[in-house]
Amino acid sequence: MEKSLTSLQNPRVKGFAALKDKKQREREQLYLVEGVRAVDTYLSCGDILQTLIYDDEIPLPDVALDLVFAARKKGIEVLPVGTNAIAKIADTEHPQGVIGVARMGDADWRAIVDEGEGDATVAAAPLLLLDGVKDPGNLGALLRSAHAVGCTRIVTLPGTVDVYSPKVVRAAMGSLPSLQIARMTDTFEELGARLNEEGYRVIGTDLDGTSLYEEDLTGKLALFIGSEADGLSFDASDLCERMITIPMPGKTESLNVAIAASVILYESLRQRLVRK
């Protein structure tokens, strides 16, 4: 039986808690996964979980204990910690008693773009390019919708919040392991050249664009999504061949970016299913 870690000064407890900081996540290439449902999903996704931490000072519900047993059976490191230590590590006010420590994906943005090579069938989901999506909850919800429609290739552009931040991970509800996500680390010119070489049609979102219901959203498509407040940056807009918008006869000023992206992604899915 593992010895419980109760001291808040324990190096491992401090190390796990430090993963709430972006620089530490990038240094360790690890991030935190909170919540019974999310940890359960991660356990079923290969070897993405490095460690499972659980609170051994409270009676855990059976569903949480099952995760502990399942992690041990898979050979994942299992660490009991005290309630105060869990509280220090967790990003939530009322942690559920289990926290996963997951390995970051190692995809390169060029590989994600290139993976669409030769895949011009109507069944192919768009390549999703996220430009300046700043709110963690919105980004997580957007990633969850992308997962739902099978849009698994995602590149985040400058200004977009870190996909491995605790709030994004929680809002994504276990979707991250099923997605290929990478940050663009080069210039927009390089991105544009890559999209052109790979034969993508590039579409962006803009209030003055064509209705998405009048646009072909099938085939080899790269879709730019901008922030709710600012829309697409000039650099991103400059790469787009066409702009689309969501009709809003109700005259609301705007939609939450996660909702807007979901509407577009589901319209793309509808068109792909109809044309199969």
UniProtKB/TrEMBL annotation:
Domain RNA 2-O ribose methyltransferase substrate binding: 32-108
Transmembrane segment boundaries: none
Xref: InterPro entries: Alpha/beta_knot_MTases (IPR029028), MRM3-like_sub_bind (IPR053888), Ribosomal_eL30-like_sf (IPR029064), rRNA_Methyltransferase (IPR051259), SpoU_MeTrfase (IPR001537), SpoU_subst-bd (IPR013123), tRNA_m1G_MTases_N (IPR029026)
Pfam families xrefs: MRM3-like_sub_bind, SpoU_methylase
Protein name: RNA 2-O ribose methyltransferase substrate binding domain-containing protein
Gene3D superfamilies in the record: 3.30.1330.30, 3.40.1280.10
Family: Belongs to the class IV-like SAM-binding methyltransferase superfamily. RNA methyltransferase TrmH family.
GO BP terms: methylation; RNA processing
GO MF term set: RNA binding; RNA methyltransferase activity
GO cellular component: cytoplasm
Keywords: Methyltransferase, Transferase
